[in-house]
């Protein structure tokens, strides 16, 4: 039956005659063939698996320089660069055993190097590894990465924080497209679902050289699900259940590929009741429902590769306004509530031009955000439409020097159609040009670049002068010149050092420029400042790593100086019984870092101990503390790996103790937060049940039902604790 489905699904594909070809064998150090090795060419979105003889092949590949990746559990990842200059190219690979994490190719940086060759230290996590921690949402999983936290509103709404910076200071990319979804607002999250996402990369620090405005604090770069290997058809079903919220997450995906064409489609539905605190009560109206749909089609031949993807994400979110009141396990949101529809279309193409190539990414996002107070009619409705493009030309290599010239742009419109306005109707236009180069010699790499940006913001006048909700017309232009330079070297065989200095900028957002009214979810009257300047920063990063076959250690340190940091300040006046706050600017500094180790004792190959510590301090020029700075955190995990006969393979069990310290360094209108410790357990593996094979994950989070309030919880001011004990069961079937 499966063969017939494959024929029907691929019947529309036009299979072209193979031309250039890559083939070879993969062996171990004893010259024995390795079967089941995943071989992948990222640029072409092509993958295959080695057969019992360790052989693989790709046909119809371009005459160009390509990076081929070889992955097998228990072996070190191999990344080979091959120049296709003739019809047949042979590539034979020897893989060596490795018990540590794989050396991933980093997509979010300019030259797509593997992490060990990359000038910048970038955190890489697969979505599977995040889900194995039993997290309920994508942003909750991201917050387990050292240096990343979240500003949360219950379990449904989370906004990423990278080294103390959040909101418009952190840029998010998905499907190669910059995500724009009114990220200045506190009352909604990323609008992204972890279903259909392969992995995430986190750049901790200014990345304006590659991404322009709003990458001042860092970048979250989500890599989409890969297509099926050539000439295969796959069905995947994933089910997760959550005890605390009586929640469910179901995902079904289908994908297929020929030598040239590839297709995929995935649907996902998530539903949760109000979350329960350790005392046993539920926090009213923290329930939510999410629908996510993704599809993609790709084509590649000897001249180019192109992929079109579409993602719809629909959110129905309850807004917790009165704390713990009426108790219910209903999943139907109550008032006040909000609905968000997000449509993301992307076209990612590579054109091969002999010894050079052109990358072109086009994206369109339609984000519709609605809020409902006590009736089905939206009191607030904002439609944000964004078109952006990113073109990068990879020049021919000159010796060991690689170089890229790029141009990026964005055109955005915001339109209001509800009774209330948070920001005015406006248009934003961005244009940026940049150049960057990478030079390698021996075990050293140096990389640098320069970029110029211009942003124009035009908004319309709205309302009556002197009254709440009045917005004056704005016509501003913001310019910035930024640079970065980085150096990586192997001090010895096992030691790596990275040093990076980079500048970044952020143009003020519409809320900061034009606010005039009571801010949602607060009792403060906010007044914008149409004369705000760019935020401009310079950050220095130092990374030192040590690695041998049984021990890994890293330490990251950073110092970030920001000119014209924008923040909200109490004026002392009152309007309509609300305290008045205004947006002002001051210089600021943030400093801190992360450190960790991974110990794998010999001969106990089944045992791993991992520990990491992260800290950040943020201060204004007058030495007052910045708001929303996460507390110091220390995370410890013991992990065992095992096999039980033939029915459980790749098994694992984890015990985690996560200690969050007291946060007493707070801004003027924050309060200190107490420290707390949480214990989590995890168990899982690949289970064979007759002819059925599936992956099981079973997690117990906050196992001892600890009562705590996270410092960055927006429910903290009402004294509402975070979620209590949560048992998560996950099942993943590849059919």
Note the total helix count: 5
How many domains, in number, for the residues?
2
And the CATH topology of the largest domain?
Answer: Maltoporin, Chain A
Provide the structure class: mainly beta
Output the CATH class name of the largest domain: Mainly Beta
Strand content: over 45%
Unreliable segments of 5+ consecutive residues: 1-18
Strand tally is 40
Shape: globular
Could you characterize the architecture of this molecule?
The chain folds into two domains: 2-98, Immunoglobulin-like, CATH 2.60.40; 122-350 and 357-734, TonB-dependent receptor, beta-barrel domain (Maltoporin, Chain A). It is built from five helices and 40 strands. With 735 residues, it is mainly beta. The protein starts with a helix and ends with a strand. The chain has a 22-stranded antiparallel β-barrel. It has a five-stranded mixed sheet with strand order 9-15-16-13-14. Strands 1, 4, 7 and 8 form a four-stranded mixed sheet that branches.
Secondary structure elements and pairings:
Blueprint: H1 2-9, E1 21-27, E2 38-41, E3 46-49, E4 55-59, E5 65-71, E6 78-83, E7 88-90, E8 93-94, E9 122-126, H2 127-131, H3 138-142, E10 148-153, E11 157-162, E12 165-166, E13 170-174, E14 177-178, E15 197-204, H4 208-211, E16 218-224, E17 232-242, E18 247-257, E19 261-272, E20 288-300, E21 304-318, E22 337-353, E23 356-372, E24 380-394, E25 401-416, E26 426-441, E27 444-459, E28 474-490, E29 495-506, H5 510-514, E30 516-518, E31 524-527, E32 535-547, E33 551-575, E34 578-599, E35 607-620, E36 633-644, E37 648-660, E38 676-689, E39 692-701, E40 726-734
Parallel strand pairs: 1-7, 1-8, 13-16, 31-34
Antiparallel strand pairs: 1-4, 2-3, 2-5, 5-6, 9-15, 10-11, 11-12, 13-14, 15-16, 17-18, 17-40, 18-19, 19-20, 20-21, 21-22, 22-23, 23-24, 24-25, 25-26, 26-27, 27-28, 28-29, 29-32, 30-31, 32-33, 33-34, 34-35, 35-36, 36-37, 37-38, 38-39, 39-40
């Amino acid at each position: 039956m499966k063969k017939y489905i494959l024929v029907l699904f691929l019947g529309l594909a036009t299979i072209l005659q193979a031309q250039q070809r890559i083939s070879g064998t993969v062996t171990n150090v004893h010259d024995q063939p390795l079967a089941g090795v995943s071989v992948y060419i990222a640029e072409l979105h092509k993958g295959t698996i080695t057969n019992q003889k360790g052989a693989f092949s790709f046909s119809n590949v371009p005459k160009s320089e390509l990076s081929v990746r070889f992955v097998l559990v228990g072996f070190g990842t191999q990344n080979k660069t091959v120049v296709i200059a003739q019809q047949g190219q042979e590539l034979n690979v020897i893989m060596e055993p490795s018990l540590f994490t794989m050396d991933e190719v980093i997509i979010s940086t300019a030259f797509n190097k593997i992490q060990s060759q990359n000038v910048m230290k970038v955190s890489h996590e697969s979505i599977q590894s995040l889900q194995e921690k039993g997290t309920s949402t994508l942003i909750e999983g991201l917050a387990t990465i050292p240096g990343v936290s979240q500003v949360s509103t219950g379990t449904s709404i989370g906004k990423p924080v990278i080294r103390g910076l959040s909101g418009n200071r952190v840029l998010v990319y998905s499907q190669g497209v910059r995500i724009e979804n009114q990220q200045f607002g506190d009352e909604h999250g990323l609008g992204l679902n972890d279903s259909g996402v392969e992995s995430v990369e986190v750049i901790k620090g200014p990345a304006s050289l590659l991404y322009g405005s709003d990458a001042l604090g860092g970048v979250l770069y989500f890599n989409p699900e890969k297509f099926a290997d050539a000439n295969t058809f796959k069905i995947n079903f994933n089910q997760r259940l959550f005890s605390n919220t009586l929640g469910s997450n179901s995902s079904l995906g289908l994908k297929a590929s020929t030598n040239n064409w590839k297709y995929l489609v995935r649907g996902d539905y998530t539903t949760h009741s109000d979350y329960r605190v350790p005392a046993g009560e539920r926090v009213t109206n923290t329930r939510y429902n999410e629908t996510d749909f993704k599809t993609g089609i790709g084509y590649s031949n000897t001249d180019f590769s192109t992929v079109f993807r579409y993602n719809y994400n629909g959110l129905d979110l309850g807004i917790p306004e009165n704390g713990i009141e009426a108790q219910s396990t209903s999943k139907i949101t109550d008032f006040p509530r909000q609905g968000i529809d997000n449509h993301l279309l992307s076209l990612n193409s590579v054109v091969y031009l002999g010894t050079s190539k052109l990358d072109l990414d086009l994206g369109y996002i339609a984000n519709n955000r609605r809020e409902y107070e006590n009736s089905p009619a939206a009191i607030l409705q904002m439609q944000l439409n964004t078109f952006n493009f990113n073109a990068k030309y990879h020049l021919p290599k000159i010796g060991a020097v690689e170089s890229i010239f790029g141009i990026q742009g964005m055109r955005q419109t915001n339109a209001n159609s509800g009774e209330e306005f948070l920001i005015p109707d406006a248009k934003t236009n961005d244009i940026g040009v940049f150049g960057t180069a990478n030079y390698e010699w021996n075990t050293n790499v140096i990389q640098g670049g320069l970029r110029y940006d211009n942003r124009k913001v035009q908004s319309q006048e709205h309302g009556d002068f002197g009254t709440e909700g009045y917005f004056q017309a704005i016509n501003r232009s913001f310019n910035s010149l930024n640079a970065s330079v980085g150096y990586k070297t192997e001090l010895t065989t096992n030691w790596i050092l990275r040093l990076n200095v980079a500048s970044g900028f952020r143009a003020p957002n519409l809320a900061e420029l034009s606010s005039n009214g009571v801010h949602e979810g607060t009792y403060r009257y906010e007044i914008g400042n149409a004369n705000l300047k760019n935020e401009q920063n310079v950050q220095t990063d130092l990374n030192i790593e040590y690695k041998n076959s049984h021990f890994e250690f890293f330490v990251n340190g950073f110092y970030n100086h920001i000119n014209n940091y924008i923040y909200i300040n109490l004026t002392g006046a009152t309007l309509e019984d609300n305290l008045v706050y205004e947006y002002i600017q001051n210089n600021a500094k943030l400093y801190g870092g992360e450190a960790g180790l991974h110990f794998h004792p010999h001969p106990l190959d089944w045992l791993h101990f991992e520990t990491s510590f992260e800290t950040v301090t943020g201060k204004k020029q007058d030495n007052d503390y910045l708001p929303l700075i996460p507390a110091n955190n220390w995370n410890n995990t013991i992990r065992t790996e095992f096999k039980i006969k033939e029915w459980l393979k790749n098994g694992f069990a984890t015990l985690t103790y996560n200690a969050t310290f007291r946060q007493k360094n707070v801004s003027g209108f924050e309060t200190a937060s107490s420290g707390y410790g949480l214990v989590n357990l995890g168990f899982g593996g690949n289970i064979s049940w007759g002819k059925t094979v599936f992956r099981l994950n079973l997690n117990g989070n906050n196992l001892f039902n600890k009562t705590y309030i996270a410092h960055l919880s927006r429910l903290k001011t009402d004294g509402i604790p975070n979620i209590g004990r949560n048992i998560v069961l996950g099942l993943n079937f590849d059919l």
